[in-house]
Amino acid sequence: MWSSAIRSHALLYIQLIIISAVLWFSNVGASVTTTDSIAFDSNQATISPPLLVKRNRIETLTTTAECDFFLCSIAGTPQAATTFLLGTITLLINVIAFFLALYNMDYPPLRAKQLLLVGLGLMGGCCWFYGFMLAAGLLIVPDLLPSCPFWTVVVQISLGSLTIVTTILLRLYRLFRVIVQTKPVQGLDYLLWWVVILLPSILIAIFGLSLPEEYVNFLNPETGQCKFNPTYKFVIISLIGLMIFIVGGSIYYVGKRIHISAFNEFRENKILLLFALVAFFFNLVFNATKLFHNSWAQMIVAMITLIIVHMNFWILIWEPLYACYFNREDYLMDFLIELNGAGQSSHGTSDPIYSNSTCVNT
């Protein structure tokens, strides 16, 4: 079990290094001038005429950019195009791995990963990444960008970052219900708790679409970026921070009632909480300061978002998916020992994770 865990984390770090290296080389080789390095002649007039189109599009036309990358038609800079391409490839690999896990969901350790929540978290990661790329002006899609409340509040926040935090909380609740309360994952009370946990994301989306744009999020004509109303931004940041705090408290509460705190399912939730704290910290710093309008800061946030989404997924799915094909019986035995040690017998739950230990090889 431990050797498998070491291999899984080593692979995650290698993937992180590869992504960072490719982005770094693409930035070094790019000769395009970004919004931060554009300088105008001091002899020009100090008062600029009113902008009729977005500033980022003006800069794209007025700078002599040597950008022959095929994605430059929808991205402002080669760096943004590279990030978009890396993100798309990375998320596509994750989607393929998820469907592979669904194909083999009869394998008990995979079924115990709560694949519905894994898929929900992956969907949230995709929405978070692409919603941020559009809202920050890193992607130039004229037909989509004007709807700032939809892409920023609904896609990036409600379906994105809030959904990821919500899935962690739902995983903890299901873990507590099955192992501590020994109750089935069904019934009216179970569905009621799901609704309560999902309610903040739903309300944020409803208010984001119902209120006028100037009270929520609107397109800034000077930068071509979506800009939050300060009050609404404070509400969203406070809500996300509160949900992360609730997740931390829930981890502490559930951990006190699971006999083995190193139980794999519980340990992974602590790692996911750490990733959520890192993402929240960087977004808080960039959104609370003028640093957010810096193109390099936007690139950093986009890459942090991509890396966290990628690692969130593989932390959950790598070990059982690898074991399903290459170490099935040994991993299954270790899984059952850990589960029994956590206080759960094979007859104490209605969750049918013991019915079949076969793995479909493709």
Automatic annotation (TrEMBL):
Which keywords label this protein? Membrane, Transmembrane, Transmembrane helix
The protein, known as = G-protein coupled receptors family 3 profile domain-containing protein
| Species for this entry | Batrachochytrium dendrobatidis (strain JAM81 / FGSC 10211)
Highest taxon of source: Eukaryota
Which residue ranges does UniProt annotate as crossing the membrane? 12-32, 84-103, 115-138, 150-170, 191-211, 231-255, 271-289, 295-318
